[in-house]
User: Fold these one by one.
Assistant:
Number 1:
Amino acid sequence: MVSSALQITGLLIGGTGMIGTFAVTGMPQWRVSAFIENNIIVFETIWEGLWMHCIRQANIRMQCKVYDSMLALSPDLQASRVLMCAGSVLSFLAFIIAIIGMKCTRCVQSSWPAKDCIILTAGLLFILSGAVELIPVCWVANTIISDFYNPKVNVAQKRELGEALYLGWVAAFCLIAAGAIFCCFCRCCEKTRSYGHSAPTHYRTHSQHLHRKTESSYSKSQYV
């Protein structure tokens, strides 16, 4: 019962991280226009994402345009697009594999050790997808902060951290946490099985020793 609850908890956390990864990949709020010095145009907000950039005017009208070419993006956004797509695929595979390996599912006719291996694979994929997602999120955040404090960068080109970056950190944490739960679950199951196999062996050895001692006593009494 406890193991099933632990698996369901890991699956829910991993599913949350997977949905968050999909959302971060498609959101345009990676870079948000900064209102500093003379650049105080509060009725217009510029968003820059992996696939499009948007201009929002006075919370009433918003226009978005998809990038004409991937080469139009900065190097960090180009790499982020590839890494976020890879992280989305890995998180989706980890989620499907975790469902197949759960004890409450009967998708495959396999033994418990085989299902534990499937759960371990899902856990490692969750951790890998979280690490892959952290790379672009932290890279873009570092670029934004560096440009913000760089006096050589024009004020109009400076940006702030967008909502997608904060959501990306949360999603990556959920994926890594889900992977850690599944890996710890497999480790605990392995220790339980090893203890369960060693205890009966010791019991049988002790029983055989008592049985031989009884037979020896019986033979001696019969001889007398």
Note: The chain has four helices and five strands.
Number 2:
Amino acid sequence: MPMYQGESDPSLRALESRQDNILKRLYELKAAVDGLSKMIQTPDADLDISNIIRAQEPTALSTSALDLNSVLGKDYGALKDIVINADPASPPLSLLVLHQLLCDHYKVLSTVHVHSAVKNVPENLLRCFGEQTKNQPRHEYQLGFTLIWKNVPKTQMKFSVQRMCPIEGEGNIARFLFSLFGQKHNAVNLTLIDRWVDTAMFQLKEGSNKEKAAVFCSMNSALGKSPWLVGNELTVADVVLWSVIQQLGGGGSVPIPANVQKWLRACENLAPFSTALTLLK
């Protein structure tokens, strides 16, 4: 039938191929414009030190990773970019640990910037995402992770620079990032995880020695029953409490119980923790 003969016409196939290439270039251009828009509308990124790395390929554990579109919304052709402002005088170690864990699950485009008002950022913080490597086009990444060293009273995060208010506080940001791993917990464990995160950020980080001792006592009891704070699986509670303990330089004048010491060693045996720990040296 004549109307179907055109389907095998070489000129028609060439036209379709050209159209596909044009669409692909348009998507790449949209992703680039979105990136520039983020830089323009975020005055925090005055100095780009171009620490962009290629993330690891997703491992076998990626089966637990979420479809990012289902969590962060679908925006075809644009890179989903998480932007974090953090004070270099108090590096949010938990977020650096979670960044590395995200790289194990997704293809992450990682970038470090320095705000113009910040002076003398240590070299290890400038390279906290590793050495620069050859870049891929933005559209080939699943997630962007932009860290801006800036003088801020609290660590801040924005996912959509144009549409959302910032999430403030290391613990709250850690909760958001950890949700991207797709862990499933029952209501009891979710409550325990939230309680531990709040305990870390308020009682352990800001409390008196008596309050710190009470936290270590509770941790020691929980870790006597399971290898991690909430059951047999690493959760955001472990990441945040470990981060606060490191920021405090250990227990200070408060002795750290045996089970907590064992747990600290277990954390630091994992590469994301040990890598983050080097930033304090």
Note: Residues 10-41 form the longest helix (32 residues).
